Amino acid sequence: MVRMSAEERRESVIRAATSEFARGGYHGTSTEAIAKRVGVSQPYLFRLFPGKKAIFLAAAERCVEDTIRTFEEAAEGLEGEEALHSMGKAYTEVIAEQPERLMMQMQMYVAVAAAEQAGDREFGETVRAGWMRLWDVVHLALGADVEETTTFMAQGMLINCLVSMGFPPGHRIWDGLYPAEDREGMPEKK
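Above: the chain's sequence. Below: its structure in token form.
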């Protein structure tokens, strides 16, 4: 059996943490569950990360970076309306194929509110910085049009909420977001 390097193990922890946090949220997920999913001991987990908060923030940052990469790749060489449609299609595919990424995003926002209410601003600062990087990527792809960027991001958040609540692709709630012929590949809550 081939031994993993610390960096490879760290990557496996981030993937496992994303899955666990996506389902259980920050407060409902134990480091024991993450360690078990990875196949390491909790002490080893804490050699890779100083604590649960660091693991969550690493997973949150990865989630944002993956979404940024999705949008950059989708918009590459495109502008305006073409970039908008390509990014929207790519994001719809990602949330259909990787629902944990969508749920991790939702858990990030909940964690920020809970942490800040308890006086911890680090969650919010990290998540807001990621959101701003995401905003900037979309903003540039859409020709630095603030209204287009706002609409795209707002519709993305609405899609996140509707998918998280389990509205099926054929439901009338989607009528204002997608034409009926574009709903075939839409994600359903699993």
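Residues 22 and 100 are 6 Å apart (CA to CA).
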